[in-house]
Amino acid sequence: MFPYPSGKLHLGHLRVYTIADVVARYHALQGRSVLLPMGWDAFGLPAENAAFERGIDPAEWTAENIARMKEQLQMMNANFDWTREVATYDPEFYKHTQRIFLLLLKHGLVSRKKATVNWDPVEKTVLANEQVDADGRSWRSGAVVEQRELEQWFLHITEFKESLLRDLTELTKDNAWPERVLSMQKNWLGKSHGAYYKFPTRSTDSRGAGSKSEGESLEIFTTRPETIFAAQFLAISPNSQLAEDLAKEDQGLRDFLSRAKALAHSSTEGYRIPSLSAISPLSLMKNVPDDRFERLPVYVAPYVRGDYETAAVMGVPAHDARDFAFWKRHHPEAPIKYAIGKSKDDPSLRDDSPMVLPGCMTSLAGEFQGGFSDDVAKKIVAQIENETQLGRGIVKWKIRDWLISRQRYWGTPIPIVHCDTCGPQPVPEDQLPVKLPRVTHHWANGRTGNPLEAAVDWVNTTCPKCHGPAKRDTDTMDTFMDSSWYYMRFPDPRNPDLPISEEAARRHLPVDIYIGGVEHAILHLLYARFVYKTIMGLLYPSPTSGAQEVAQSGVSDRKTLATLSREEPFKRLITQGMVHGKTYTDPDSGRFLKPEEIDFSDSSSPKVAESGKRTGVSYEKMSKSKHNGVDPGSFISKYGADATRAHILFQAPVGDVLNWDEDKITGVTRWIRRVHQLVRTLAPAEESLDWNATQHFTKRADSEAAGQRAMDADVWRTTQNTIVSVTRSMENVYTLNTAVSDLMNLTNVLIKHTRASKTLKVAATAHLLRMLAPIAPAVAEEFWSMLYPSRGSIFEQHDNNNGKTWPAQDDTLPLLRLETVKCAVQVNGRLRCVVEIPPRPADVADGPDFQAWITEEILKSAEARQKLASGAFDIRWAKKVFPIKNGKVRMPRLPPSLIWRAHRISPHLAALLPACRDLASARNELRWIREHVFSSSSTSSSTTTTTTQKGNSSSNVQQQQQTQEESGVVARLCRRRGRGVPLQYVLGSQPFGPLNIRCRPGVLIPRPETEAWVVRLAGMLSGSDVTKRRSDSSGGSEGGGSLRVVDFCSGTGCVALSLFALLQRQRRDVNRLRVYGFDVEPRAVALGRLNLAMNARRGFLKPPLEEEKSVAFERADVFSSDWLSFLRSYYDDNEDEGGSTPGSRRERQIDVLVSNPPYISAAGFAHDTGRSVRNHEPRLALVPDAARFRIDDCDCAPEDVYYARLLRIAEDARPGVVALEVGDLAQAMRVVEMALKLKGRSWESVEIWRDWPDMLPDEGEEGAVVVGGVRVPVIGSGSGRVVLLRSPDGEGD
């Protein structure tokens, strides 16, 4: 992607253009014709602002910046084709931008209509959203920004929406485009299915007869058409025209409408229209009994938006959280009708929560009972439409037409002339370009507003149609218009008549590889796809199946053909990561430090020069305010362009963030020096080209030459493998860092084998230099000229390799098989010996054959026979053998002596050993299993056992039977545990704080680290004034307050129940304590309720569990708002006590928000978790399920998506305390960063707690980290475990 000419190259530029140049040079060495052009995205607001500040013409400022940046780019040894250079501010370029605009206008893809803009009344100009601050003021003048409606030009991108969505499937093939970008574009297009229903209205009293609403219908829009079977009311917006009309005859409604203006959108208040009811369209269908569907009440409700669709909804309490809350408030005793159940086999439904997920239709759906809800949706809409004409399906899209008008000077002028007689007229093509006038006086005098409006000589012109007086359009085009087609100009940059000729388009387009940042994933790439489809479809249509007839029908139908086009501008998209700079902060203030404020005398431990304290060190996005920028020019001057290029590639994979560390370049410069030394030892090489590797390695070597042959084989084998791996990296692009490391390894092998054949080393070094050439072209060229002084450039063809100079693998690898390889043998995870064995024969299959072969080969070694052929480590008795890459073999077996010893003590111990791995652990677990069995047995038998006389024989028999049964249960549980089942699932319970928590498969096991932070949190809340605001404001609870705790992803309920138990004892001042546990997994909700009942029954939870102090576990999805409905009772009670209105703008809905959500990445789950966790604990409780959310809506790593959602909830619900369990310190810092970026929240304190927050930190564990310039305390010992956020005292903010 071409750069904006800001005047200074930054490391992000250097990274992306290094990657592009490496890829281009590689393909050129492969013999391909490669085009690597460069241009400038020169229009835009920064140039206009600079002109205003400096009093110079933006064209002058831009030209100076381009010259400066071009000079910087030329320093990096990139092979750009400067003969094709373009700049969007050049009239010869934007002439064709104007031509494209007129082309789209001609074919009906451009129109002019009104749109709302940000207007600065002082500057008399339109502002971008980014130029309006949080208070709604202009960034420059400080004036309050006004919203104005202006006539604007739009491109009809919506006519291509189906094509833009359809062709994303083509870009998924072979991972051509990153999945993340495709998902973001799909979400931006936003296709969804919905329906309009008309509900006939009826008057309910004689006064309403003959009114406007009598005999008419109320149209609603719904995204879930299948839920009409469960509709129980209709609701219209207080801002709708219908509400205003009805209010003319209803004083009560008029009063409510005036009051509704102050109600929040989330309010559950409403007004039932007494004179009006509605009939479901279902009741008018054939074969439907008259009494099956009741009349529906009609309400006016603030939660219905007046600006969305028809400003009316059908209320379905069973399947919408807002409808549910509204219905429960107004009809608390009325039953709720469910049209959708969980499944055919489980239709059980409760009326205490809405079913918002898809499922199977219930009996309420009649003939559709048992069908999947998504399938029924389309069928019922079609049936209602066919039989009653009261319904119609519709497809909705998020995407809107592209507004390209900008009330700015520095952009492409819109080629339209406005005539009072003829209207807007296109500028004739022979008068293009419409050039920007010079308005030097405007910038010099610092005038405000759009200078084009004041350029009278330029604005006043003649109408091209009637030749009367007219005025030019003073708007300019969105700069995305320029960047949407610039890549098409490179193949034909000097064409005066067309943006690109058909011959050039067919030869060079589409672009094979397009490289740029993921921040361009939506707008730039989507607009580029749209414009490319239109240009190619309108200028050079290539008919596809289904479009042949349209193509033959003439120019007038080319627009239709264009919308059918499957053309895509970029075959493959590479998105590189950002570059972050090393950032130093003051440990006391968190202030970013300038280099001169730091003492670098000890580079490993930089200190604040003033205080002598060790600075905080982190990697942040480069910016002036953080003083972490790096000048690429000075860096290149210091280390050289090629070393800088290799350093950029080597530090990180292309798609990852690159943490720029200058110190690490020493490894790269050392490697380049070693290559130089290697070439010097071999140069100059003989010019003979007849050395043949196959002939060399097929010669029979005598005993004296065997040593040299082994070295030759090692060198050439490494060379051939490096060719394969580096070629793969170059093709993949994202793994270019491994290409550098592979070349380093080859260099080491070449230098190590000093006695290898010189001719072979020369050939291998030649391959090394050719593979080095794309990465370090100047160095490779110089070294090549040393090695072959008379050959010319390394980038020229020198042999008969099908026009390639890139090395290709020969057929010698079968000749180079190692006679022996080193094999490190591990038994039970510990290294026992290293032996030499032959390579594995091709006919040895995995399984018993491999185990027999490897065992035999290992035991041929005297050392192996001594260590591994007898006693506890006799590998001939190994249960399993695992071959590991590079020849290492691991044999995870238990020593027979340990098993025999355990068996002699107890057979149960031997059964436990495979899971416990040592005798001490097995003994402990056996004791716990026995205690569990015996306590369970005694509890169950206590109700039936009667007192017997000593010596009674029947009693002895019963005791013996019981003992045998207990022993059988112990044996069964031990075997189950030995198979790797977690002990908590085997025992069925786990102590947690003051409670005993039941554990069952399918629900995550509580961890001791979780228990540690929960106990600390309860202690903190005991001394907290988190309820101060409520206590002061509530009037119904004398001497106390209320505390509401919400636990998302509650699992077993251990966190919610422990907090409730501890707060019951420690917060006696709280009259109303309510704890809610929400989980989407039904098994977790059921287990939470079981643990509540069990711990209450056993006295672990202090009675009474009355309404004022209660715990509830409900099924709710954190990614929806259905959990809000369960908090309704609190709002009702608070209102009765004189509290604030529910849903008011800054009311705190939650006092304490806690969560232990899924936070492990898919890769981390596969590689970093234990086998017991992977095999037995629920993956969905550990790894976020990508099917349940849209990652692109969260702008974070997939494993952090729950935190993004929870923080959004915290932003709306305004809890006083937030505690979020995390996986490690790095994730904790990411969560803190997200929390600090919340615009609607400020935090009084932010802390990170380690695994054991009440312990002192170990040596080397930092007491604080710096995140986003904020110093965050890290408390306790261990890994990062919890992020704790607290709001300012007494406020929800």
Automatic annotation (TrEMBL):
GO biological process, one term: DNA restriction-modification system
EC top class named in words: ligase
Any one GO CC term of the record: mitochondrion
Aminoacyl-tRNA synthetase class Ia domain segment(s): 398-519
Signal peptide (residue range): none
PANTHER family: LEUCINE--TRNA LIGASE, MITOCHONDRIAL (PTHR43740:SF2), LEUCYL-TRNA SYNTHETASE (PTHR43740)
The protein's name: leucine--tRNA ligase
Species, as recorded: Monosporascus ibericus
